[in-house]
Write a structure and sequence with these properties.
alpha/beta, Sulfite Reductase Hemoprotein, domain 1, elongated, eight-stranded parallel barrel, single chain, TIM Barrel, binds iron/sulfur cluster, five-stranded mixed β-sheet
């Protein structure tokens, strides 16, 4: 996706991080712990931050959560974790932020859902109080509209006005109107454009892509992308990746969240891993060296080849924290692990370093390439260990040439 032109948006400062078209696309995630459970929320936030989340969101749903927020934030900062923390508010945000100033101060951004701030005249009054609190504490706000919790009064009015439209069309138009009207109201109250982030999340790929495309055409606010209720496991990963790729490929989106229903034994940080892989595979950010490996076929010994590809991936993950500190640009490195002579030499030459294993009927020697040229042959036993040693030495060479 070289040469991708991002949709122009202002810079929004969230703690020490900036969102917007002049900045990297940020990865965010949300804890699923009880926020009042300080230990669990602290631990999961640290896990998400260690996995590379640029922003982490906590639900702030009651007084116990609001009381816990400043204590957990202080503990994170004491331990050197500077990841900006977002408070997610529904129904009672205006009350909680007003009653718990330490909470309001500690958070780096507030999220409000205009569909969940009360009905009728109370809707505007609660929203106004919320925005005025954001102004008082100088915090940016995400106005996050969800198809599952649309402002019922707005939806009813839109349905009356646009009877000829399909229900789906009415919902997407109501979502855009809810986001834009709320943002305009917030600006009227004094919030700057550089303090506003919008999202219009839906649960199916095509609907979500369409609604974001329309919203992007109608405004220049910073956009947070996410497919809500994407599900879990492989279907969730694929659905989110499809939706986000279609939008990011058009330059739409300043921050992303991959929402996955947790599965037993799978860490919450999976969301962050998927989002980072997605951005790197689209060429939008670099997080760690890319291991290019062929799928293998009948021409190669499946076991040997698969083990080498897995060993290289594990070695890269394990070494990355050290490499990152010492070797600038290591995250852009390409390492090829190929199964036979058909594509092996070519791909290995295109990578910074690569190895082409011998296919079943080829000479029993693995050829290593560095910077587009043959570097050496590895013969005999322990091919994996020998290649990892060469790889490590190659990285050390990069360090000394920087
Ligand atoms: S490089 Fe060789 S082993 Fe790998 S998929 Fe292609 S033909 Fe099969």
């Amino acid at each position: 996706m070289t040469g991708l032109v991002r949709r122009k948006t202002p810079s929004v400062k969230i703690g020490g991080l900036f969102l917007g078209s002049s900045h990297l696309i940020a990865v965010q995630s949300m804890t699923n712990t009880l926020t009042a459970d300080q230990e669990a929320t602290f631990r999961q936030t640290r896990e998400l931050s260690d996995a590379g989340a640029d922003l982490v969101r906590w639900t702030v749903n009651d007084e116990a959560a609001a009381q816990a927020v400043p204590l957990i934030v202080a503990r994170l900062r004491d331990q050197g974790i500077s990841t900006p923390i977002i408070g997610d508010f529904h129904f009672n945000g205006h009350v909680l932020l007003n009653s718990f100033p330490e909470c309001a101060r500690a958070l780096d951004k507030y999220r409000i859902n205009p569909g969940n701030v009360g009905r009728g005249s109370r809707h505007d009054a609660h929203f106004e109080t919320f925005i005025k609190l954001a102004l008082e504490y100088d915090k940016p706000v995400r106005i996050g509209v969800n198809s599952g919790s649309l402002d019922p009064d707005l939806l009813a009015a839109m349905t009356r006005r646009t009877k000829r439209q399909t229900p789906k069309k009415i919902i997407s138009q109501a979502m855009i109107k809810s986001a834009l009207d709320s943002a305009a109201f917030a600006e009227k109250l004094g919030l700057k454009k550089s303090q506003i982030v919008l999202s219009v999340k839906m649960s199916t790929v095509r609907d979500m892509v369409e609604v974001y495309e329309q919203l992007a055409n109608q405004c220049d606010y910073v956009l947070h992308l996410g497919l809500t209720e994407a599900g879990g496991g492989l279907p969730g990963v694929v659905a989110s990746s499809a939706a986000l790729s279609l939008l990011l490929g058009q330059g739409i989106g300043d921050t992303i969240r991959v929402s996955l229903t947790p599965e037993p034994g799978v860490k919450r940080a999976r969301e962050v891993e998927v989002a980072r892989h997605l951005l790197q595979s689209l060429g939008l950010r670099d997080f760690m060296p890319q291991v290019i490996s062929c799928p293998g076929c009948g021409r190669t010994s499946g076991e040997e080849f698969q083990r080498l590809a897995a060993d290289v991936r594990a070695f890269v993950s394990a070494q990355m924290p050290r490499w990152k500190k010492n070797v600038p640009g290591v995250e852009r490195l390409k390492i090829a692990v190929m199964g036979c002579v058909v594509n092996g030499p070519g791909e290995s030459c295109h990578a910074d370093i690569g190895i082409s294993l011998p296919g079943r009927q080829e000479k029993p020697s693995a050829v290593v390439y560095r910077n587009g040229r043959k570097f050496c042959d590895i013969k005999g036993e322990k091919v994996n260990a020998k290649f990892l040693k060469i790889l490590n030495e190659f990285i050390r060479t990069l360090k000394s040439t920087k």
